[in-house]
Structures are given as structure tokens and as C-alpha cells.
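Checklist before submission:
- one chain only
- standard amino acids only
- sequence pasted in full

Submission:
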Amino acid sequence: MNSDDKVLGLESLSRRRFVQMGAAAAVVTNLGGLAHAQVSGSASMIGVPFEKRNPRVAMIGTGGRGTNLLENLLAADAQIVGLCDLVKAKAEHAASLVVASGQKKPELYTDGPHDFEKMLSRQDADLVVIATPWLWHAEMAVFGMKHGKDVAVEVPAVTTIEDCWKIVKASEETRKHCMMLENCCYGYNETLILRMVHAGKLGDLLYGEGAYLHDLREELFSNAGEGLWRRAEHTKRDGNLYPTHGLGPVANYMGIQRGDRFGHIVSMSTPQRGLDAYRKEHLKAGDPRMAEKYVTGDMNTSLIKTANGLTITVKHTVSTPHPYDRINLIAGTKGIFEDYPPRIYLDGQNSDESWESIDKWKEYQHPLWKTEGEIAKKLGGHGGMDYIMLYRLLQCVREGLPPDMDVYDAAAWSSVTPLSIASVSHGSAPMEFPDFTGGKWQQRKASAIATQV
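Returned file contents:
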């Protein structure tokens, strides 16, 4: 370092950066050690089919999201045998929907936070659907697998690297599936573009971008539903708390876990201002929520580098005014697609470099949307993607097919949260992703979502 650096104060800055990088290196070493230490040694679940059957479904969580999932499951003729919720009235309401569909009333489990264990110990349930607050996901998923159930868990599947390995290990040891209910992978646009990507229309892929940009301030401060637990997450961690809606479709486009994988991530957050400003305007003096300290930056931006050199930008904000947007961008050597609104530009498309609608590419409409699209649209559920997702899950079980997305996808996509938090806390230092497949990502084929005909 020269004298000019000292005058500019760069000497102390460099020392601070050196300390940060040293601490970050320790984190990476620890995560890497965890990655190697947690490998179970059991056979992989890649390509393993479901046991062929008409699944009997037990549900944990019958609030807003759980009820929506239940309605779509019933529309797909799922048999519901058990419902669990802390609030008996919610479970009773869910049961009334089951009865209204023509089934007998399922047994209810509402006796405390661990009553789900009694439900999952039943022998007449094959598949458990988990729609609870995030921190319960890992425990419930592992318990379900260890008691002979395949598991479908809401997003994010888990919240820590340790829990990522727990669900991977449990799935491999029990030979039961654990898939994440990432509905955005089943959207009309997402599935159409996925098939175009696999047909080579965008050429060799280079970069993508996904996001969850959604103004949830009113919901976060609600005295019901997610307001009872989700706001608390903003008092604990600074990073991308909810990455998979934007990331999942991009990961599918790129064949992550299927010829490529996430390599490392760098992440940074803005200051936190939005929740403070919102409560100041909307809460009364003396409200206990005024004493909460929020630490999650209003906008988190993360950059992922894949093993094959592709890049993915992932953004997250729920505490500022913003129109709903998942960005959903994928680009290659022959063109680019970007959503919200959906538009595409392919090489040689026109002379003025203007976007065009994707309507002319309806030949790539996914078969699921061709056959089930009208029912999906009538049901609603995020534009119909909820029904398509659950219809496909039941189809895979009924026909004895492997799941479209497995436990390795659930772990890899969910790991963005803890790794982004580690990167933010260590000056945006790079954090390496564990290889949850044990190297088998190099031999895997494309997801069945892309190749289904």
C-alpha cells in the first residue's frame, strides 16, 4: 500500500475488508464442512418414482394458503383423510369443504402444535401437504418421511443449511420424496418458455433474473394469517427471505441440478426503512409492535454464479410500495424473454429491436395447460398455476412417476436464504453452495416439466 492510500484512508478500509473476508472465509469453511459432514451415504433419490397409488392426503395447516391448496386438491379428486391446525375453527371449515366435495369428514387434529405427529403416525395416509409457518417445515417434513409419508411442503422448504441437509438425508434414508410446492414453476408463461428453451429457441443460455417484489406491508402488520408470524422474520435475519418464486423457474430454464448447479452467491441489502415508516403511519402510540426492531433490508439483491458460468440475479422486497413482479427473465445467444408483462425478442425478429408478444409461440404451450388449463383458470389460485401444480403432483403419484422437483431442488433453492444472509453479514463475500446431489447433477436429465409431452 502506498502513501496515497494512507492519505485516502484506504489502509484502514483494507484492514476492515481483510477482517471481513477472513470471517467470511470461516463461514464458507464451516458451510463446506457441513456440506461434506452431512452427506448420508444413502442411495440417491434422483429419478426414483413414487409408489404407484391413489394417494390418501393429510394436510398440516388449514389457514389461507392451506385452504387454497385444499380446494385445488379436491378439484383434482384427491382423497383427504386428515386435517391439522392449531385453530380448530379453521380445521372445521376445511373439513366442511371436504364434505361438500362428496367425501366423508376427515379426522381433525387440533390439540396443540405437535398434534401433527399423531396424524402422521396413521397408516392410512400416504402423502402429507405442509402449509405452515416456515420454521416448522423441516421438523414436519422429516417426521412425515420417517413415518412413511411422501411430503409436499410449501415454500421455502427450509430456512437453514442444516435443515437442507436434514431433509435430503431423511429422503434418502426413508426412500420417501420431499418436494417443494413451488407453484410458479407451473405458470402458463413459465412452462411455455421452459419448452422454448429446451427447443433451443433462445440458444445457449447466459443469464437469468428472478424476484419476489410484492408489497406485503398491510399483510405483515395484520392481526391474522401471516401477520401473526411472518413479520417476526424481519427481526431476525438480513438477506433474501423468500427466493424461490422468482428463482425456481429460472433454475428450471437453466437445468440446475440437471447438468449445472449453483456455484456461489454474493448478496447485499439496502437499509431497512419501509416497515418503520409503515407502522409510524398506521399504528397507534403504545402498540407493542412499535418496539420491534427490523433488520431485513428493504431490497436484497443477490447474484448467483453457476458451475457452468451462467449468472442469476435474485431480488426480494416486501416492505416497500411496488407492483407485483417476479421479473422472470431468461436470456441466451439467440434471444431473451422477460415477464411482467410477458414479452420476447429473438435474433432477427424485426428491424427495430422491439419486443413482441409470446402469443405467436402457442405451439409451445405446455400439455398440462392444454388439457387442464380451463379448469385451472376457473379455480383461480395464482392464475391457475396452483391447480396445475397439484394436478401434476397427483398425476406423478397415481402413475408411479418421479416428481418433477425433488428434495435436491427443495434444498438448493431454499439454501439461497441462509447463504444470502451469510454473504450480507460478511460484506457481500461469496458463499459456496453445497452440492446436495453428491455430484450426480452432472448425469441428470432435464426436469419432466420441460420434457413432458
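Reviewer check: Residues 1-21, 32-37 have pLDDT under 50 and may be disordered.
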